[in-house]
């Protein structure tokens, strides 16, 4: 059965004051925007309001309120019903006969707001990075009402035990720092990210997300091509590739090759680690070429050079390890730094922006199939574009709901550019 954007609805927009009193403002709303990003720690959004009754003055809005939004397909799990912190009023100006104001109410997850108010100072000994991040989330936000069940806080296990001290950082700062060290327990590389979507918080490797089965297939065809119907949910309304190959940027960012020099100030040693496509199973960087010196891109290790502090040599130094407990667990800088440098850059190698009919069931972390038709000398053909069709990961999403009945979803999609059979052996359902 065909599904249409009109099957979805903006059901409620309510402002909840400090005293618990709720005010319904749905009929003042011109547009609702809801954002998710795989490289962001929290969801956010805004509501554009057309106000002729003075809501700001009547409710005395001061940034302490909660906004509750409910939208989506009302009879299934795609329905979104969430509370957020209303933290800012922007773009306030009179309109028309000056008896009406337009302004924007900005909101974000309460956890982001709390993270700016709290510091974490904690020592971890013999713990995985996933365990540390879970501990920070649970101990910081559980009393604030965060549901830390496995449905709302999903953690992919990471490899290796570490001794780490979080030096009085804000919770999301600490999670960002720790994520750099994380290596997935199953798979390869060091591409784990922490993010929130409407279903909760997630910590997972990008490779495992790419291994998820596509939740839906989208096709792009002009409205008069094979009598396709643009309003059908499974049709792309418009698209553009905001980034394709950029061999100069790929060279500078270390996709093809990079070098890490690790300095251990305790043992007074250094280690040089070179990375290229042979260093990681399944890794295949496109566009490698031979320069005028006869060297290929993957042989030019100093195109991206990093100097970091490590401790991998301490366990072999007798004057250090002779005292029990004097050697901290290896932070594996020679693994996570070169791998993460290349993998995060490769995850942004091919980026497509697509606008589709509104679908509140889509979230960042899902994969989708994109089917594009090939171009020929006669125009659009019936053959598939084999180069740019395929599996894409939703890395950012914007739900746009207008009260005139328009609902569209704007997707930012990253193309799978790796051989995942070897690179990541598991999926991570979102």
Layout of secondary structure:
Layout: E1 9-16, E2 22-24, E3 29-37, E4 44-51, H1 55-59, E5 66-72, E6 80-95, E7 100-108, H2 110-115, E8 120-127, H3 129-141, E9 153-155, E10 162-169, H4 171-179, E11 192-197, E12 200-205, H5 206-210, E13 217-219, E14 238-243, H6 247-253, E15 257-264, E16 269-276, E17 305-309, H7 318-321, H8 333-346, E18 351-357, E19 367-371, E20 373-376, E21 379-384, E22 390-402, E23 407-415, H9 420-423
Parallel strand pairs: 9-12, 13-19, 15-17
Antiparallel strand pairs: 1-2, 1-5, 3-4, 3-22, 4-7, 5-6, 6-7, 8-10, 11-12, 14-18, 15-16, 18-23, 19-22, 20-21, 22-23
Helix pairs in contact: 3-4
Short overview:
This protein has helices at residues 55-59, 110-115, 129-141, 171-179, 206-210, 247-253, 318-321, 333-346, 420-423, and strands at residues 9-16, 22-24, 29-37, 44-51, 66-72, 80-95, 100-108, 120-127, 153-155, 162-169, 192-197, 200-205, 217-219, 238-243, 257-264, 269-276, 305-309, 351-357, 367-371, 373-376, 379-384, 390-402, 407-415. With 430 residues, the chain is an alpha+beta fold.
Radius of gyration: 25 Å
Could you tell me the number of beta strands? 23
Q: What is the number of helices?
A: 9
Low-confidence stretches: 227-232
Beta strand %:
35-45%
How confident overall, as mean pLDDT? Answer: 85
Question: How much helicity do the residues have?
Answer: 10-25%
Largest sheet: 13 strands, mixed
Distance separating the two termini: 25 Å
Shape: globular
The secondary structure category is alpha+beta
Structural description of this entry:
- By secondary structure, this protein is of the alpha+beta class.
- Helices cover 16% and strands 38% of the residues.
- It contains nine helices and 23 strands.
- It has helices at residues 55-59, 110-115, 129-141, 171-179, 206-210, 247-253, 318-321, 333-346, 420-423, and strands at 9-16, 22-24, 29-37, 44-51, 66-72, 80-95, 100-108, 120-127, 153-155, 162-169, 192-197, 200-205, 217-219, 238-243, 257-264, 269-276, 305-309, 351-357, 367-371, 373-376, 379-384, 390-402, 407-415.
- Strands 1, 2, 3, 4, 5, 6, 7, 13, 14, 18, 19, 22 and 23 form a 13-stranded mixed sheet that branches. Strands 9-12-11 form a three-stranded mixed sheet.
- Helix 3 runs antiparallel to helix 4 (171-179).
